[in-house]
Amino acid sequence: MSVACLTSAILLVGAPVNTGGLSLALPAEQIARAEDPKPAATATAAEPLPGENEPQQAAAADQEVMDVTVTARQKTEGDPLEKMNTMSFELTQKVDRAVVAPISLTFAKIVPTPVRDGLGNFLFNLHEPRVFVNFLLQHKVGKAVETVARFVVNSTIGIGGLFDIAKRKPFKLPRRPNGFADTLGFYGVKPGAYLFLPIVGPTTIRDIVGSIADQSLLPLTVGRPFNRAAFTLPTSIARTLDHRAYFDEELRRLREGPKDLYSARRDLYLQMRQDEIDDLRGRPHTPIRSSMRPAEPVTPRTTTPAPTPKPTPAPAPEAGPSIPSPAPPIPNP
């Protein structure tokens, strides 16, 4: 597959989802009683009267239709291959716990943080031309110019992109990920079916097409060494392990969270991607709490919390008539 696709395998571990439909239909006997609450005078007869079972048969048919209708409505929209995706999700979880997580944590302990930071900066700097092209296709000329400036500054002063000098003063040029999948969404292409693929991780039909175009740009336009396995394989493995080590704590919290983790991660991914497209098109969206695609290099760091400022004492009130203070608001349930 692609180089960058390997890094998304660390994003997803979780539990299977129950895809059973929910039936809201009442039993046929209860429906029949609701239609005719008065008991029949001949209810104790041994043989039913002609036509006596017709209401029950009609109610049973209605129940069957209601069951099918409600179950169809419960089908997850945008995830027609949910059963296959869930199996892939379970497999990824097992492989992650048994292989990927231990190796990635060992990698983070052995390789110094500056080395991992430099690798992340270098690889992202290589993708700045792709970001530039897509900003032009999205009519974002200002951001395209900033992307060129970032590439020039980091490729020269930043020693080939090993250091992200462009985000610092006096340049202050932020890092902005972009790709052909975003451009497709910008022009109204729908995401298509949601997929959870081994190694690739969470994606959609649109994102797969865009990712193939992204990863083909450098090999087709530049060639060596970007089209050689001697370059792509070790860099892909290193970035995959670096990503997995960075997100280890968050993945642990997710495993202790909702039981239906598959649905939670799927909904988060689809919402995140839609929010990114809405940003490009200038549309409002509902912000999400967590994103598994940080713009900054993904390396664990220890930060010192800022000291808590001491509260300033309020001035003493002037003498005057006593006014009762309002009652505190009642908290929401």
Task: Please explain how this structure is put together.
There is one protein chain. This protein is mainly α and 333 residues long. Helix content is 52%, strand content 2%. It has helices at 3-7, 28-35, 54-73, 82-110, 113-126, 128-137, 141-156, 180-186, 205-221, 229-246, 248-255, 261-280; strands at residues 194-197, 201-204. The protein has a two-stranded antiparallel ribbon with strand order 1-2. Strand 1 and strand 2 (201-204) form a beta hairpin. The longest helix has 29 residues, at 82-110. Mean pLDDT is 74; it is low at 1-46, 65-74, 288-306 and 315-333.
What is this entry, summarized?
The chain is mainly α and 333 residues long. The protein contains twelve helices and two strands, in the order H-H-H-H-H-H-H-H-E-E-H-H-H-H.
DSSP helical segment count? 12
Strand arrangement in the largest pleated sheet: 1-2
Q: Give the helix/strand class.
A: mainly alpha
Number of strand segments: 2
Q: What string, H for helix and E for strand, traces the elements in order?
A: HHHHHHHHEEHHHH
Shape: globular
Average of the residue pLDDT scores: 74
Radius of gyration: 29 Å
